[in-house]
Amino acid sequence: MIVTTTQLSHYVSKCMEVDLVPFIKGPPAIGKSDIVRQVADEYNLQVLDFRLSQADTTDMNGLPAFTKDKTKASFVPMDTFPVEGDPLPLKADGTNYDGWLLFLDELTSAPLSVQAASFKVILDRMVGKFKLHSHVRIVAAGNRMEDKGIVNRMSTPMQSRLAHFELAVDPKGWVKWAGNAGLDYRIISYIGFKPEALYNFKPDHNKDTYASPRTWEFLSRLIKGETDIKPDMIPLMASVVEEASAREFFTYAKIFKSLITIPQIMAKPETIPVPEEPSIQYALSGSIGYHINEKNADKLMTFLERMPIEFQIMSLQGGIKKNKKILSNTAVKVWISNYSQELF
Asked: The CATH number of the domain where 135 resides is what?
């Protein structure tokens, strides 16, 4: 069944809590692995990213080794798989994770022999004759057959071992994620204004790349910190989101140059004209969300409350994600008391 990003996070968590293995299916580059990592962070688990398409059957069963008396051989599991008795993993700061999230990615790209070898890991939680650690949770993911990637059919025994979810492209959910992840505010504003620009993948395309949740994040890395996006940056942007998307975004980014400035708004928050063009409203709300802080929030909120409610929400979502100190501002507190349901 097709689900949104927000729904999927909840469903993956529920499956993990009852020791079921969720399988996330969807077109490429829409953020399947990002959702898995978010869930891992929520549960304080270390992600073990295991690509089944690159695995061999011995990876799932272990390698043969002699017993101590050398009269027999037994299989020894790879260190990829935590087994009973292993210590909990350490973070960089010296504290412990609460366990591991074993992410079996590219499941549908794995040969059937590797899929079969993974049955025991997925259903029985065993690696050879060793039990997986009780603090291991498992999530699997893969692409769809119709997307013309390197995909093999899933065997029927594997189907019955998984809880199946198909992830839809979800611009609204992506905008929320992008705000949390600190992506460039101009990209967030652009996708909010034109949701269909988030993903233009076609299985039969002949371009070098395409716009997707993954590649917009790449673009954010390239332009973040650039106060002015100039024409000579178009080839750089096109290298990750393809030329048509790069040119459309460049045109939208030029709007930011013509916006009323934050100092102009603060000088006359009650009387300065509010733009009527939706594209400019989107850009302006993104700019306010980026620049608002606990010191200028009073005047910016006075202006912001003159804009349509959806742009107020967009600005405050971005502002709070970037700087939680604005929650101490009285004007922001009053606004949240009225619109908290829409904001969060």
From this structure: 3.40.50.300
